[in-house]
Amino acid sequence: MIPQSFITDLLNRVDIVDVVGRYVQLKKGGANFMGLCPFHSEKSPSFTVSPTKQFYHCFGCGAHGTAIGFLIEYSGMGFVDAVKDLAQGVGMVVPDNDDKIPPAQRAAQQAQSLALSDALQRACDFYRAQLRQAPNAIAYLKGRGLTGEIAARFGMGYAPAGWTSLKSVFPDYEALQLVESGLVIDHVDEDGGNKKRYDRFRERIMFPIRNVKGQVIGFGGRVLDGGEPKYLNSPETPLFSKGTELYGLWEARQAIRDAGYVLVTEGYMDVVALAQLGFPQAVATLGTACTSTHVQKLLRQTDNVIFSFDGDKAGRRAARRALEACLPQVTDNKTIRFLFLPQEHDPDSFVREYGADAFEQEVANAMPLSQFLLREVAGEHDLTTPEGRARTQFDAKPLLQAMAPSGLRLQIVRGLASMTESTPAEIESLFDLSKPVAVAKRAPPRQGRPQPVGLELQIIRLLVAQPSLAVQLDETAQAAFTFFGEEAAERLSHLVTTAQSLGANGTFAALSEQLKEVTTEYDHLIAEIAAEPESDPDADRVWLASAVRQIKMDMLKKELNQLFSSGLTPDQVSARYREITAQQNLLVREAEAAMAPR
């Protein structure tokens, strides 16, 4: 787990304007920077980035967050990957308690990654240049209905004939990184005496594969004629793993947001052709079955995922594997559907024959995951017989067990119970689904906690916006918060402790990131503060001190009013009275000193 102190230090070093500016064109507008929101379609800029708050906020769709949150939402990175990416940019190394790799070895690994990334980008540039000089490759792409514009958008290229064409790019053709990146192959004779090195890709249309940061991490190559294999992928490397990457995801990011869904296809050419035909929200797995990691990446980009498969047996098998990969990731606020085209068509050919509107209708009519699951488990079993119904339940059991407790799982259980002449309770008992698998690990939500109002709310807003002010709140100040009631005092105490843990240099961005990790209670308030102009820290400091003094004074006044009915002896009442009045006089002097001209 990454220490919160590291996150705070990272956010203090990173400039969110630089981070967002890599992906969004920003212009100075007053104290902030403005641009078109990357998370929804708009013609007038409503997306602001505050260099003082180190926070972004969209007045149109409400999206907001820190530099870490931006990378997660825009690029689809996980939290750890986003932190590592930002840390690398400012020369920080992310600490990891479970990382036993010595620092020297870690540095060597980072140097290797940079060398491989550089080699792959240089090869990509070479292949793109070669495509412009390859009439046969250009003719093939034109024959598939592709334009030069779409080829350029996806960085497509051509690997020419010849065993060692990359020698013109890499004078040191024997460099180790060429093998490690998968660009070349070392062939050694059976007796081990003669080694030959040659290019992996020859006479193929080249599709560069990019990661979520837009870096080339591998290639897919399609043969022009009837040769085999039809598609050749880069091997597994330190940068590239087929089970975790999706072709076209980098290029499709904005289109996915605009369309509201991602379309998952089976091949490179489907992605490029669909982009050409008006469906740029398509991506593809890389010649391997869909994995749970693929699904996680997709659901970071959108709440709606549609898998498109050919209607033949191979397509059905691929759909079943995709279904199994999806089940652990299913939640009630995400929708996953399955589209099956006629056996003679893939998405490219279907759109060309029937048109974009017809394909759009097919997408709209895609089968929901629940329906596909029930159809799969029913299979060809005879549901009129006890044996057929029992076999259906047998096939459904591992699929339902893979799902977390959710409303959707309950609906599928009900559907299965109806199909197999059972009750939902019988299914849950038979499958051992009655016990939630995750809820018990979470702290129970606080029920009925009153929402902050008045002075309490003002103090909370101030501490969230200016967490460095929390260091001026000592134990007596925090004790005074009991004036608002036990629940409120607990909330304020937790907020103060969290803010104080950031130190005197604590920022709105750092506190927001930390609060988001433990509760959603402050989300609405954070969004409001992000949209407001920056306040004056000095004025805020004075106001907070004044507010605390007022709370203390009100508490003393309340105690004084109740003192004579408190049940204390006359001597105890007299002593406490003198203590209260002394404390009141001290607070008055503090207030006068604060108001005195400096």
Task: Please state the overall shape, judged from the principal axes of the Cα atoms.
Answer: globular
Query: How many distinct folded domains?
Result: 5
**Main sheet makeup:** 5 strands, antiparallel
> How many helices?
25
Distance between the termini: 47 Å
- What structural class should be given to the helix and strand makeup? alpha+beta
Task: Describe the structure in your own words.
This protein is of the alpha+beta class and 598 residues long. 50% of the residues lie in helices and 12% in strands. It is built from 25 helices and 16 strands. A hairpin with a 2-residue loop joins strand 1 and strand 2. The model is unreliable at 436-448 (pLDDT under 50).
List the keywords.
DNA primase DNAg catalytic core, N-terminal domain, 5-stranded mixed beta sheet, zinc-finger, primosome, DNA-directed RNA polymerase, DNA-binding, DNA_primase_DnaB-bd
Can you summarize this structure?
Helix content is 50%, strand content 12%.
Which secondary structure elements does this structure contain, and how are they paired or packed?
Elements: H1 4-13, H2 16-21, E1 27-29, E2 32-35, E3 47-50, E4 55-58, E5 64-65, H3 67-75, H4 79-89, H5 103-131, H6 135-143, H7 148-153, E6 157-159, H8 176-180, E7 184-188, E8 195-199, E9 204-210, E10 216-223, E11 231-233, H9 249-259, E12 262-265, H10 268-276, E13 282-284, H11 292-301, E14 304-310, H12 313-326, E15 335-341, H13 347-354, H14 356-364, E16 367-368, H15 369-378, H16 386-401, H17 407-419, H18 424-431, H19 454-465, H20 475-480, H21 486-500, H22 508-518, H23 523-531, H24 537-563, H25 570-595
Helix pairs in contact: 1-22, 3-4, 11-12, 13-14, 15-16, 15-17, 16-17, 17-18, 19-21, 24-25
